[in-house]
Amino acid sequence: MSNTFSDANRTWWDQDAHDYHQSHSAYLSSFYWCPEMLHEKDARLLGDVTGKRILEIGCGSAPCSTWLRDRAELAVGFDISMGMLQRGTGNLVQADALSFPFTDDSFDIVFSAFGAIPFVESSLTVLQEAARVLKPGGRFVMAINHPMRWIFADDPDSFAVQYSYFDRSGYTEFEGERLTYAEQHRTLGDRIRELLHAGFVLDDLLEPEWPEDLTENWGQWSSKRGKIFPGTAIFVAHLPQ
């Protein structure tokens, strides 16, 4: 019986891998941080990656790590879903984000682009693991669904409020007693406090605006919503030297 977020989401993403790639082919074609299609070549949130060892958390089929492969010294991605990993190439590892299979101080940069962090019981544990494998002074960047998005219905045309922003109980789906999908919710303040508790210094918080020429919906992300309020929050941080 699946009783944990990890078990449920491993099975969910294994089963959804084909449909996910069919639905989001443009987004998965390169290193885009978010449904607003912010590309790393333009944003440069990772900084100069030349000669750097980089780790991606929750890489899925690893379009981001693939883009980095010829630019960095080493780009490694890991994900809990073998179904997703089998669609990628390169230095890919199957692992749970609650326990990184890497040694201390082994990477210059660690990042996540909508991977793993919203899908675990303890996002703080993921951040602590990221801090553990980062070298002193290393950079950490995570892009997640904007916490304000949580309150709205999962519908790109709806502005109906469905949940309380302050309800941290998360979202779950069950088949009988078996947990089949799970997603956590934290407020913006929670996210910042977790970063600080894990030992990071917060450098920036980006809320990408919806591009004028982008008309394609991405799940609940749409131009209708995106022109009014943010759908993505990107945290840029570093470890002290």
Automatic annotation (TrEMBL):
UniProt-recorded Gene Ontology molecular function terms: demethylmenaquinone methyltransferase activity; S-adenosylmethionine-dependent methyltransferase activity
InterPro entries, per database record: Methyltransf_11, SAM-dependent_MTases_sf
Start and end residues of each Methyltransferase type domain: 55-142
Keyword field contains Repressor: no
GO biological process: methylation
Documented EC number(s): 2.1.1.163
Highest rank taxon of the organism: Bacteria
Gene3D superfamilies associated with the record: Vaccinia Virus protein VP39 (3.40.50.150)
Enzyme class, UniProt record, top EC level: transferase
Alphabetical UniProt keywords: Methyltransferase, Transferase
PANTHER family: METHYLTRANSFERASE
Name of protein: Demethylmenaquinone methyltransferase
Species annotation: Corynebacterium kalinowskii
Chain's gene name: ubiE2
